[in-house]
Amino acid sequence: MEWSNLLARIVAWLRAGYPHGAPDRDYFPLLAVLGRRLSDDEVDAVVGELVAQGKLPATRIDAGVAIARLTLELPRESDLARVRERLLVTGRSVDRGWLAAVPSRPAVAGGPVATAPNGFEWGVRTQYHENLQQLAGSLHAMCLRDRDIVAAATEALLSNDLPAAEAAIDLGHEVEVMQQDAEREAMRLLTLQSPVAGELRQVVTAVQLTGNMKRMAALATHIAAAARRRHPEPVVPGPAHAVIAGMGAAAVAIADSAAAVLESGDPEAAAALDRQDDTMDQLHEQLLAIVLAPDWSGGITSAVDLTLLGRYYERFADNAVEVGRRTIFLTTGETADAWVSGMGAETTDADTDTADTGE
């Protein structure tokens, strides 16, 4: 009867959180919440790791770290006790404080378990937040790398510089590796603990951002590849030189601004990326006007190259804007459109108040 009541409570809890069933994207957080019990082999593996690392006499925290490293989950008190007993049975020494410790997580009816402020859980949670900060730093580094790629690619176009094109393409490969590493770290963080709303939003947004920045790198390497493909012939004819230079400068500027937004999390600066994208859109229109002009004499091949290059630059800027939009959601919990609309309404109300007071 007791087991049936327990099962009924678990099912009721799951249904309350997922009335329509658990969606695919929530499987990892759900598994992190449920946890599991160590197998006997895993207990032996934890003991073996403590011995191999010279962590004897073993402490509760040493054992907890070893369990977390093995399972990517917070250790249970029952598992810690099993590791302690296995150490003692096999003649290994255990720290006196762990031997004398009483359970520090008594159950509270109808609420979460209580933890000691200096206990293992606190230490792991601190490490978790540090890992989140490191993930954010990786995203910032990726965006700066995208800026460097588009700068080198533009230099290759305008100066017919083959080494610059090769360097840009090599940097693009580095971003692919960075994106894969960031995605793996994000998935690890999803399964490490039960992330609360803000943490879950940060990890999920990080995965989305890596996709945007990978696309930025790919678009910039397409630009570099065009310069390499046509070398030693120039890609950009004289009439389009100034416009391409302007698009390259705009791409570098918006990537730099996007990196600053990732670092600061400022939603107003993130929204301002849209205005920088307007500059890119205007330059793109100018480029198309040059190619489609009646007096265009550059030939079909050059026209196709310029049309593709214009598209690459435009999409590069669009993805930088998307970085800003995702940052707004990450910081405020609102979609970019909703947040911008709310800011517009506040500005209108403030202007009305000022007019009413005659100031």
Task: Please summarize what this structure is.
With about 350 residues, the protein is mainly alpha-helical. The protein has helices at about 1-15, 25-35, 40-50, 60-70, 75-90, 95-100, 120-160, 160-190, 195-230, 240-265, 265-270, 275-290, 300-330, 335-355.
Q: Treating each run of at least 4 consecutive H or I residues as one helix, how many helices?
A: 14
Structural class: mainly alpha
Beta strand %: under 5%
Shape: elongated
How far the N terminus sits from the C terminus, by CA atoms, comes to 73 Å
Residues in helices, as a percent range: over 70%
**Major sheet: size, sense and barrel closure?**
none
Low-confidence stretches: 102-120, 348-352
Mean pLDDT: 82
Q: Report Rg.
A: 28 Å
DSSP summary, beta strand count = 0
Order of helices and strands: HHHHHHHHHHHHHH
Q: Care to describe what's here?
A:
It is a single chain. By secondary structure, the protein is mainly α. The protein has 14 helices and no strands. The chain has helices at 2-17, 27-34, 40-52, 60-71, 77-89, 96-100, 120-159, 162-192, 197-230, 238-264, 267-271, 273-292, 299-332, 336-357. α7 packs parallel to α9 (197-230) and α10 (238-264) packs parallel to α13 (299-332). The longest helix is centred in the middle third of the chain and has 40 residues, at 120-159. The relative contact order is 0.08. Residues 102-120 and 348-352 have low confidence and may be disordered.
